[in-house]
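U., I forgot to send this yesterday:
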Amino acid sequence: MISGDTILFVLILVILVNLARALTALRTLIYIMREAHPLLYQQVDGPGFFSSHGNVVKQVRLYHYLKSKEYLHHHDDIFIKKCEKVRRLFILSCCLVLVFMFAVVLL
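Result:
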């Protein structure tokens, strides 16, 4: 029988791997955004997005952009696919964290 500690450890590893995937996809999205959508790049503080002095309000703008699927009206297919990937990875990360919290309560 698998112990509860092993399940929690594996869930943490899966969450960390998925978080790394999400951050990498977000970084490439911001890189693509510089050419595909310069106005949004400036609105989300593109150059300082991952810096320690990044503006959180501007970062939330990107969250709302992805959440409301405003990218579907864009002309660049690569940009649309990358936005969709970041959105799916963010949803997956949230679900994994909820599963982890549920597992902590049960185990």
